[in-house]
Amino acid sequence: MPDNEYVVQMKGITKVYPNGIAANQGVDFNVKKGEIHALMGENGAGKSTLMKMLFGLEQPTDGEIFINGEKVNLTSPTVAISKGIGMVHQHFMLVPNLTVAENIVLGMEPKSKGFIDFKKAKQITEEYGKKYNLYVDPDAKVRDIPVGMKQKVEILKALVRGAQILILDEPTAVLTTQETDELFKELIHLKNQGHTMIFISHKLDEIKQITDRLTIMRAGKSMGVHETAGISKEEISRLMVGRDVVLTVQKEKAQPTDTVLKVRNLEYTNEWNKKMLDNISFDVRKGEILGIAGVEGNGQRELVDMLFNLNIPDSGTAEVNGKSIIGRPQREIRDMGVSLIPEDRMTYGIAGSATIEENLMSDRIANKKYNKGALFNTQAMHDDSDQLIKDYKVLCKTRNQQVGMLSGGNIQKVVVAREFSCNPGFIIADQPTRGIDVGATEFIRKKLVELSREGAAVLLVSADLNEVMELSDSLIVMVNGKIAAYFEDTSMLNDTIMGEYMLGIKQQSDEEVRRVIHE
Amino acid sequence: MNKNNLKGFEFFRGLVAILIAIAVAFIFIFICADDPAQALSCLLIKPIISNGALNVKSILTILGRTTPTIFTGLAVCVMFSADQFNLGGEGVTMLGGFIAVLLGIYLPMAAGVHAAVAIIISAIAGGAVMLIPALVKVKLKSSEMVTSLMLNYIILYVVLHFLNNTFADRTKGSTQTYEFLETAKVGTVVQGTELTYGFFIALIATVIIAIFMYRTRWGYAIRMIGINGQFAQYSGLKVGAIIIASQIIGGVLSGMGGAIECLGRYTTFRWLELPGYGWTGVTVAILAKNNPIFVPLAALFIAYLNRGCELMAIYAGVPAEMLDIIQAIIFLFFAAEQFLSKTRQKLVVKEAKQEISAKADVKGENA
Amino acid sequence: MLNQLTSMIFTTSFGYSVIRITAPILFAALASVVAEKAGVVNIGLEGIMMFSSLFGVLFAYWTNSWLVGVIGALVIGAIFGLIIGVFALKLKTNIVLAGTAINIAGSGGTIFLLYMFTGLRGNTANLTTPQMLIPRINIPLIKSIPVIGPIFSGHSVLTYIAFILVAVVWVLLYKTPLGLRIRAVGENPNAADSVGVSVLKTQYIAIMLSGALAGLGGAFMSMYYSQSWNTGITAGRGFIAMAAQAMGQCEPVGTMLSSLLFGFASALGNKMEGLPGFSSYLVASIPYIVTVVGLAIYAVTQLKKARKRG
Question: Residue A376: its chain B contacts at CB < 8 A?
Answer without folding.
Answer: 215-217, 220
